[in-house]
Batch of 4 targets.
Target 1
Amino acid sequence: MGAPVVHFEIGCQKHESTVAFYRELFGWAMEGFGPSTTMVNTGSAVGIQGHFNSLGHPPHQYVTVYVQVEDLEASLAKAGALGGKTIVPPQEVPGMGHFAWFQDPEGNCVGLWKPMGGAC
């Protein structure tokens, strides 16, 4: 299963290394679309696709996104091994699921989501 997202655009200054980080973390397929944009295929029929964008001017880092994963702790650990860091450890949203936030090497804050129906 891919790692589906609800909606995203991720801004970055170091375009190539940011794209490489997410490709390795989630296994997403990437395709360049001009010099400053990379389109994303999450590999999932759930959710929508998105893109990375380097505007060439501030703001460079901007994002609000939740990525659904099988295992929050494992995803946070892998993000850390790739140069990211945990911002918010797994927290319960009563009756719905669990979320966590990490920061990627570029400084973007990204949310992870695991719906109810299994331990996180």
Target 2
Amino acid sequence: MIDLSTKYLGLKLNGPIVVSSTPLSESIDNVRRMEDAGASAIVLTSLFEEQLALESRALDEDLSRGTESFAESLGYLPDLDDYRMTHEVYLEYLRRAKGAVRIPVLASLNGATTGGWVRFAKEAEQAGADAIELNTYALATDRSQTSAELELQLLELVDSVCRAVKVPVSVKLSQSFTSLPHLVSRLDDAGAAGVALFNRFYQPDFDIEALEVRPSLHFSTPSELLPRLHWAAILFGHLNIDLAITGGVHSAEDVI
């Protein structure tokens, strides 16, 4: 039997296949089945930064009912009920998932600003997360904001989280950065133990009949694997940071 064991984020894994963040992991039965099928670790579905903002808004409304005490911009966020888990439910589910399997379980946090991530990262660590994956995004909509400022915002986020927890932190990146080798090197300096290449954005679509903006979900295709392979090859051996590939992997041949 070939020994496929490896290390990722300092964690000893029985093989190179990690289940990426997916709604499938919202079932404890599925989590057990993933382990039985040979998964070496599981990244739980993401908790979104907007969820923390909405929960904070809901609490603020309860404490300050009848006043205009929260930012108007929060009105553009989805209703809290649109999310599958509140952050307290997420933490409890993390504890249950960790107790259900022997393989490492990673918490996934999806956001762009420091905000409540430091506090929540600590809570996820206390709940038993073996590592934390920061699923980051940076969408430039202000013409005065430079790419350097976006990168600095990301680096400050990673640095803050890494300083707050003892478990390893991985950063799930988009492929839209101008110089990935330089950015990944700075993430290494900021304390990140690994990077995942790459995250995918759920792009809204325009319904020209109803004149509405509607969410649109497109699953990955095998063709998306090639840029990930190329960037992994470029980064490999030049940085003291672990690499993971996510997206576009549809077959055993893709894994190999």
Target 3
Amino acid sequence: MIYHCVTRVVDRRFAFEQADKEKFRTFVRMQENFTGCRVLAYCLMSNHVHLLLEVPPMAEGGLSDDELLRRMKAVHNEVAVAEVAKRLVELRKSGRDVAARELHESVTYRMHDLGEFMKALLQRFSRWFNTNHQRTGTLWESRFKSVLVEDGIAAQTMAAYIDLNPVRAGMVEDPADYRWSSYGEAMGGGPKGNGKKARAGLVRAIMAHKGYEADARHWPGDVSKGYRMILLEEGEEKLKEVVHKGGKLEMKVVRKGMKKAAVDAEMDCLQRNRDVAISKMLRCRVRYFTDGAVIGSRGFVDDVFRLCRDRFGGKRKDGARKLWGSGAAAAGTLWSVRDLKKGIG
């Protein structure tokens, strides 16, 4: 499962300075290493945070003792890890496998879980922030928001929407210039460390639907160029021949006798035009991406609706709702489980 998570500072005041953003990113990576969740895209702004987070299921059969201890080192000190290691050895030697499993579960319940990931991350950062800034009290406005996102075009679009936050805010013209985002880190980071991890996350966000794992080796070439095209609207001048009517994209009628190559070229042109329209849309605030609850293809949203049927009124027959307002460019490609016609801008 992939989720877009958003959390905002209380009163939405501009609280985070450069050092705060660096520390938050450090805590994000710590949680990632501990929980087994994957950060596919992120952006740390001065008063709010975006994360595109993949939460894979726990491996069948659970974690080995070695893997458990390795993950614990990401968030626990050496003394705590050593104590658990010692206890596991004792339990294994005495044949007390049930007790060993219970010890595992006392740690692993915080892994592969969206709520536990965000709870631990926000609490850890709040403690550090309050200490560092000599303050007390709550830091976050309310519980974080989350939107379930389908892999494929929905995850690609959401990643781009997240990376374009500083562009929408007028802070930079090129998202590569903002260092506290997945794209800025991917472009500016070195071949190792978090630069590599940021590239791997974006590969997964962009290409998960094609079976790509989070591997930075796939980033150079078509993956990075295609993503940058979404971010920067490249190639728009080549698309003037596509018909527009009433501000909407319309497919040309394919003339009888057209050769296959000509048909393919025309359909490719239409798709590229739609991609550019979506790219332009991402420069606006799209409320569906934070309040839509579920974003994806019509079939994906309807499937989620059926699984969660008891959460909706009895009169409702299906889940997918068309995007309107600032999300209209993606209408027919992306759908939401919530109808946000009122006040969508």
Target 4
Amino acid sequence: MNQAAIEDELNKCLLTDEEMNRHAASLPIGTYPDPLFPFLVACEGSQSVFMIARQGQNQHIRIFPGSSLYLENLALTVKDEDDEDRIRAVKVWLDKSDSVKQGILLATLRPGSYEQHCMALALLPCDEGGGEEVTNRRIRIELIPSKGAKKSPDEWMMACEVHVMGKVEPLPYAERTDDDDDEHTEDGDDCEMGNCPM
């Protein structure tokens, strides 16, 4: 092992004093890219949500019982003007888990023409068992380069980012009967991806 080369690479990861002063406050999840660590956003209670997703850096969401996540806006930001011509489109996917290769396409964003997408998508803590367990979801970015555009995976990761905005709200609980429980269990398939009748 080349100790000097390893130390040099690790030192490049450190923030400078200027960066430390600039980022003293709490930062949105995903501010700094890390493809090795699956960022997890815990959704419970009442709060605003702001995440940053990149190519190769998935955002993991965990929705706890009693809370719902509402996705409201996606916004594409391209870091370098030159990259606007190198990026044909950016697809934003909502997957059930890491084991699912392709889930629901939320939006296709295009630099310079369609950089924002508004929505009203509710994700509920619901499964076939009636919503007693947490629900895990994944937001995944698929970058489609223009023909002939070439970059390394790390360069594509840093070329653009998608800002994901929404809010977490507590679910309004109502007194339920045994008939409601039976109906909810029978309609468990409707609970996929936030279509739960709860």
